[in-house]
């Protein structure tokens, strides 16, 4: 995987067809935030590992035209692995993911997406289809002058909600997704059960 000096990476999936496809439709893009626990051991506390795999799968489907995965080193929504583990302890005591961050004196979400905007510009992309449920990500990646235009938001629906096999199923991930689902004003996520 190509890597810049900070460890943030860009992966072009199905690259052979990407150039051809960009002439027709904007490419499918996933901007993924590092999650050591979710990606390496498929921790049952979040669906991050599933999301990364699902993005790659969608981009490799026949006829999909490929896509771009940008992997940002923003572990724990930007607070780092150590602080995320402290947040997990607070969640075990009853806080949700947002409350735990705030109790640790961190913002609910400490990430930024300027680097992703720059990477997409480097790749010559002006219009994209973004695979996400996070409206903040859509706004942020577009940049202050809409350097990148998100022509379409493609929902990222957990496999378990689609009745598919595989995917993360646990009480903890249920709570994690519920925080996104029910606390729109806290997380601003667009995840809806109706998407399933
Ligand atoms: N602080 C904190 N971060 C978490 C927790 N669980 C997962 N993460 C981090 O959350 C990030 C993924 O963010 P999400 O909010 O799940 O998803 P998103 O990227 O905002 O939105 P989507 O594009 O819809 O997936 C990764 O960096 C994970 O390490 C948690 O309980 N607390």
Please tag this protein with its features:
single chain, alpha/beta, Rossmann fold, five-stranded mixed β-sheet, binds guanosine-5'-triphosphate, GTP-binding, GTP cyclohydrolase II activity, nucleotide-binding
Topology:
Layout: E1 9-13, H1 15-22, E2 28-33, H2 36-40, H3 48-60, E3 67-72, H4 81-92, H5 97-103, H6 114-122, E4 127-131, H7 135-142, E5 149-154, H8 171-182, H9 184-187
Parallel strand pairs: 2-3, 2-4, 4-5
Antiparallel strand pairs: 1-3
Bound molecules: guanosine-5'-triphosphate.
Residues 33-35, 46, 48, 51, 74-77, 79, 84, 87, 97, 101, 132-134, 137, 156 line the site of guanosine-5'-triphosphate.
Please explain how this structure is put together.
Among the domains are: about 25-75 and about 110-155, Rossmann fold, CATH 3.40.50.10990; about 75-110, no CATH class. Strands 1-3-2-4-5 form a five-stranded mixed sheet, sandwiched between helices. It starts with 8 loop residues before the first strand and ends in a 9-residue tail after the last helix. About 35% of the residues are buried. Helices cover about 40% and strands about 15% of the residues. Helix 4 crosses helix 5. It has helices at about 15-20, 35-40, 50-60, 80-90, 95-105, 115-120, 135-140, 170-180, 185; strands spanning about 10-15, 30-35, 65-70, 125-130, 150-155. The protein is an alpha/beta fold and about 200 residues long. The radius of gyration is 17 Å and the shape is globular. Bound molecules: guanosine-5'-triphosphate. Guanosine-5'-triphosphate binds near residues 35, 75, 84, 97 and 134. Guanosine-5'-triphosphate binds next to helix 3, helix 4 and helix 5.
